[in-house]
Amino acid sequence: MDQQKVNNLLPHLFRQEYSRMTALLCRHFGLQHIEMAEDIASDTFLRASEHWALNGIPDNPAAWLYTVAKNKTRDYLRRISNFENRVKDSQRQDEVLSELDFEINSRIIEDSQLAMIFAVCNPLIAPESQICLALQVLCGFSVEEIANAFLARKETIKKRLLRARADLRNGNFQLNELNEHTIKSRLDTVLKTLYLLFNEGYFSKSDRQLIRRELCSEAVRLTLLLTGHESTNITQVQALLALMCYQSSRLEARLNANGEVILFDEQDRSLWDQSLIDRGNYHLINACNGEEVSKYHLEAAIAYWHTTPAGNTKWEQILQLYNQLIQIEYSPVVALNRVFAFSKVYGNQNAILEINKLNLTGHAYYHAMLGHLYIGIDSNKAVAYYERAIQLSESPMEKQVLLNEVARIA
């Protein structure tokens, strides 16, 4: 019975506390010792699985974990000290041991993890490597889980992580000093990493899943951490969190019982999570306390309008927001989403003229959008575009969605 309870509890605690524990240890000993910190954190959870199965789960499991981690750290450094000094300088050993009595409380743990976010989001690290590093260091993902998330080979992910970890160790970033300059210079990268992390979960390219809820949850958790500190609780962060809340509110409605995507217009709105929509509204209002309008503000506003009932001006509002968004940060996906909004306002015929200006013929979503626009106008062309999208798509689950659309037209 105890083993079953331990098996149920430990994965949750590992996802929640492993990265915090690693950050706390790195705060005290420096990022150059991150592998040591991770080894101690892993050993602590292994010790918990053995001890709790025999002796029961303690009243405060998280506190038990941090106490054991602290003791393991002391033992590790005592062994290192003994090895280096060969008991020749007992006074030095006493000094080393006194340095190990570092304080642990909830505020220090949160501050350490917040600083670790900024350490991982080093602008010198390539964006794809930053996300890999964030998933491993901040979220406790294994190499295999990251490889699955990115549809990449494990060896590829290992190489990315090796390079990123070397940059992390050599960056001389101090986890106990998150100053104004660091926040200003790295916050854009932090937000972009969290945004990409959420999108990787919301639009997963994994060969097994179209939605990775754990990635979405981790992105929300880390963004919430930013809102908990005065120095990082700015309007861009509130806007990003609003966007994540709105998108998360529809997760239950996005897939059917077979794990296939349900298109937006066909979703059962009773499955939308109203509490998350309300939280999105709260954070979007907070995001508007200022003059700044970022891409996150605009995307959150678009997501807000998607939660509202269809009305005379809904799609005009969304189209205007896309018009602003595309000027701030152009991307093929934004351009194609704008075309969808354009079709809602001006009709599919005009939208076809609009999409032909984009010249995105190598993009699967471009052909899928054309397939959608040609429905009701020319079924043969609609099928042909969907079939081209299927050829270009690298996601098996996405291919299935497109095949379903072809079957519906036929």
Number of separate helices: 19
Q: How much strand content do the residues show?
A: under 5%
- Which structural category fits the helices and strands? mainly alpha
Largest sheet: none
Task: Compute the separation of the termini in Å.
Answer: 55 Å
List the helices and strands in order. Answer: HHHHHHHHHHHHHHHHHHH
Q: Rg, please? A: 25 Å
| Shape annotation | elongated
Tally of DSSP β-strands: 0
Helix content: over 70%
Q: pLDDT average, as an integer?
A: 86
Show unreliable segments. Answer: none
Task: Explain what this protein looks like in three dimensions.
Helix content is 71%, strand content 0%. It contains 19 helices and no strands. Helix 6 crosses helix 9 (180-202). The longest helix is centred in the first third of the chain and has 28 residues, at 2-29.
Question: Which properties best describe this structure?
Answer:
410 residues, mainly alpha, 19 helices, 71% helix, elongated
Produce the secondary structure layout.
Layout: H1 2-29, H2 34-55, H3 61-85, H4 90-99, H5 106-120, H6 127-138, H7 143-150, H8 154-170, H9 180-202, H10 213-227, H11 235-248, H12 274-287, H13 295-306, H14 314-328, H15 332-346, H16 348-355, H17 364-374, H18 379-392, H19 396-409
Helix pairs in contact: 1-2, 1-3, 1-5, 2-3, 5-6, 6-8, 6-9, 7-8, 9-10, 9-11, 10-11, 11-12, 11-13, 12-13, 13-14, 14-15, 15-16, 15-17, 16-17, 17-18, 18-19
